[in-house]
């Protein structure tokens, strides 16, 4: 077939698989203009109309609007430029859809009320700057007055969520739950108390052979006893209790006596907040870190072991 062959709208429809109505619509829009007209006044199209319609159909399937498609087929803009812009727009749409799916998944799991759904949707839609302000406000409250402490920068980084640009559904869901925790005044107060305790319960050196931070010392000492199934009230638990108590006395510079052990018990009970464990679990999901090991079992064991040795 030579290049002078002309096609009617019906011919184009058959060759492209489009309907006559669709071909006529693109023709009326100036995207596929007729080359000539028949003696009876019907529109006729050149061979390039088939290629143009194939390109138009592909671009429409990809979601481009007609105005952009017309610029592409008329070579007013290059196809690579349009493809890049459209890919960027689709990326935004994908992120929005991920957020919506995560919110709906969380609602289905938690049986949320309409009010909770509205809150979750707002939290999921926060911009990066808005998320950063929410995080900074929370951590600013938690570490109020502790910015000059030597452990401040490292601990702050270890508690900062970094939601990826293209998060998975479970990361968005974790973010929503974490953002709700940020706004829990009771949790804020608890975390602030823990931060101050961390600052106070940091040994000046490691002469006891245990980590400088109390929580790490408890994990180091208690885990072997817990793994061995040692009863907290048994004589076998005594060396662990003595070591923890001596370490705490060293931190505070106080005598290792009953009063100190009572203070240690209170401190460990404060640390044993399930919301703290949940925060760290959600943080790991968001940041793509390994799931943290709960501190609750060792804290519970240490508290029971200490209480078993206190006067009634």
Q: What's the rounded overall pLDDT mean?
A: 85
Query: Level of helix content?
Result: 55-70%
Round the Cα radius of gyration to an integer and report it.
33 Å
Assembly state: single chain
Per DSSP, what share of the residues sits in E-state strands of 2 or more residues? under 5%
When the domains are counted, the total is: 3
**Termini separation (Å)?**
105 Å
Largest sheet properties: 2 strands, antiparallel
What structural class do you assign from the helix and strand content?
A: mainly alpha
N-to-C series of helices and strands: HHEEHHHHHHHHHHHHH
Strand order of the largest sheet: 1-2
Shape: rod-shaped
- In DSSP terms, counting alpha (H) and pi (I) runs of 4 or more, how many helices? 15
Task: Give a quick summary of the entry.
The protein is 65% helix and 1% strand. The protein has a two-stranded antiparallel sheet.
């Amino acid at each position: 077939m030579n290049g002078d062959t002309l096609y009617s709208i019906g011919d184009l429809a058959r060759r492209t698989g489009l309907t006559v109505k669709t071909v006529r619509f693109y023709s009326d829009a100036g995207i596929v203009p007729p080359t000539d007209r028949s003696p009876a006044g019907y529109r006729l199209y050149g061979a390039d109309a088939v290629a143009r319609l194939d390109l138009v159909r592909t671009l429409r399937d990809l979601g481009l609007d007609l105005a952009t498609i017309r610029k592409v087929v008329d070579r007013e803009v290059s196809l690579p430029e349009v493809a890049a812009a459209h890919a960027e727009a689709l990326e935004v749409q994908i992120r929005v859809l991920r957020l919506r799916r995560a919110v709906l998944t969380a609602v289905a799991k938690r049986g949320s009320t309409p009010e909770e759904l509205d809150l979750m949707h707002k939290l999921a839609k926060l911009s990066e700057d808005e998320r950063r302000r929410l995080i900074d406000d929370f951590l600013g409250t938690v570490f109020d007055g502790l910015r000059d402490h030597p452990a401040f920068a490292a601990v702050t980084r270890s508690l900062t969520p970094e939601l990826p640009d293209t998060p998975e559904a479970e990361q968005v869901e974790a973010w929503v739950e974490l953002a709700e925790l940020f706004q829990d005044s009771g949790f804020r107060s608890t975390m602030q108390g823990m931060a101050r305790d961390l600052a106070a319960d940091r040994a000046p050196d490691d002469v006891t052979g245990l980590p400088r931070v109390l929580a790490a010392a408890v994990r180091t000492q208690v885990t072997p006893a817990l793994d061995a199934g040692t009863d907290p009230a048994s004589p076998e638990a005594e060396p662990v209790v003595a070591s923890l108590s001596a370490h705490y006395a060293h931190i505070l510079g106080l005598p290792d006596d009953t009063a100190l052990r009572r203070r240690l018990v209170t401190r460990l009970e404060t640390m044993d907040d399930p919301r703290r464990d949940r925060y760290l679990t959600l943080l790991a999901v968001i940041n793509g870190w390994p799931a943290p090991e709960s501190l609750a079992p060792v804290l519970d064991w240490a508290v029971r072991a200490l209480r078993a040795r206190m006067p009634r």
